[in-house]
Specification:
- With 231 residues, the chain is of the alpha+beta class.
- It has a domain at 16-104 and 144-177 and 194-204: NADH Oxidase (3-Layer(aba) Sandwich), CATH 3.40.109.
- It has ten helices and four strands, in the order ααβααβααααβαβα.
- The chain has helices at residues 4-17, 32-43, 62-66, 84-88, 100-103, 108-117, 122-139, 145-169, 182-193, 224-227, and strands at 54-58, 91-98, 173-177, 200-209.
- Helix 2 (32-43) crosses helix 8 (145-169).
- The longest helix has 25 residues, at 145-169.
- The protein starts with a helix and ends with a helix.
- Residues 18-210 form the Nitroreductase domain.
- Its cofactor is FMN.
- This is NAD(P)H-dependent oxidoreductase.
- One of its GO terms (molecular function) is oxidoreductase activity, acting on other nitrogenous compounds as donors, with NAD or NADP as acceptor.
């Protein structure tokens, strides 16, 4: 079994390996077992109140992917003259964030989630309902379709980060993508995927696969003393 120092080095190596891969090798595919592990990293991720306010679409159909090409400028290769992540990724994922239709305090969805998924006793459900109502209406002021979707998207990014880290530990590349037109994405999801925009809003896309070449630039980050303050 690896000692702590070995695990620490594996983690740092994975983060140094990971970069925003713009073009993947279209001939190399992620195995079903490995991608299921990446999905499990998302499914098991933490979220505020444990409400899991996300849905995950895995878009493998080339025809379905092409529906986003004209307006997903961060994934269509327009910036580098390639087919982009849409055309080369082994797996292409769209995260949806729940809106207030499901995430409003005391919603039927949340009551069912607490009873059937979390399997909480009624007295605990009552306490969480009160705490979550206070959180939404007073503490954070998270009310309304857009605000709740934005709050849900913050939870989505926890799952997104865990997916990309799991992928990097497996030697698999990834690229998170916010470069898309929101309104047109909502339209395509509703018309071609049956997604109800009153319940779900697109939060972020992410592509997975194996890099076609090495990154053109070395990884750079601010030094630790410019990022972290100790008190």
């Amino acid at each position: 079994m690896s000692n702590t120092a070995d695990v620490q080095q594996q983690i740092i190596n994975a983060f140094n390996f990971r970069h925003a891969c713009k073009v993947f090798d279209p001939q190399r595919k992620i195995s079903a077992d490995e991608f299921n592990t990446i999905l499990e990293a998302a499914r098991l991720s933490p979220s505020s109140f444990g409400f899991e306010p996300w849905q995950i679409l895995v878009v493998q159909s080339p025809e379905k992917r092409e529906l986003f090409r004209d307006f997903a400028w961060g994934a269509n290769g327009a910036t580098n003259g390639t087919a982009g992540q849409l055309g080369t990724a082994s797996h292409f994922v769209i995260f949806l964030a729940h809106t207030d239709a499901t995430m409003h305090h005391h919603s039927d969805y949340l009551q069912k989630h607490m009873r059937e998924v979390k399997k909480l006793p009624e007295e605990v459900i009552g306490f969480i309902n009160q705490a979550y109502e206070k959180f939404q209406t007073h503490d954070f002021g998270v009310e309304g379709k857009r605000q709740v979707a934005d709050w849900s998207a913050r939870q989505v990014y926890i799952a997104l980060g865990n997916m990309m880290t799991a992928a990097a530990l497996l030697g698999i590349d990834s690229c998170p993508i916010e470069g898309f037109e929101m309104a047109k994405t909502v339209e395509v999801l509703q018309e071609h995927f049956g997604i109800d925009p009153e319940r779900y809003q697109p939060a972020v896309m992410v592509a997975f696969g194996y890099r076609a070449g090495e990154p053109p630039f070395a990884k750079t980050r601010r030094p630790m003393d410019q990022v972290v303050s100790w008190f």
